[in-house]
Amino acid sequence: MLAAIIYWGLILINIAWLALSLYFSIFYFIRKENGNLWAFGLLNVLSAVVLWVTMLIYHTWGWGITQYSSLIYLVVGLLIGLTVIQAILGREPKETKAA
Asked: Domain of life, per the record (predicted)?
């Protein structure tokens, strides 16, 4: 029972983090503070690694909870996709020197 609570708790926490990261990414992008997107990208990678390790542990020791593991794959894919978008949009334009 505790294994199921930990499994679903990590999934729900990471879904909440994904929504929060998406919200703040849009917020900072609209305000043209693109440098902040890199921080959210790094945290998204850490979140995806936590989910990947969770999936690895639950598949290795097989506590019978992984029947919904496609949800973890979806969340990891969304986190990585959002990270790529944040990395692309997080670049600051180069300043041109006035002649």
From this structure: Bacteria
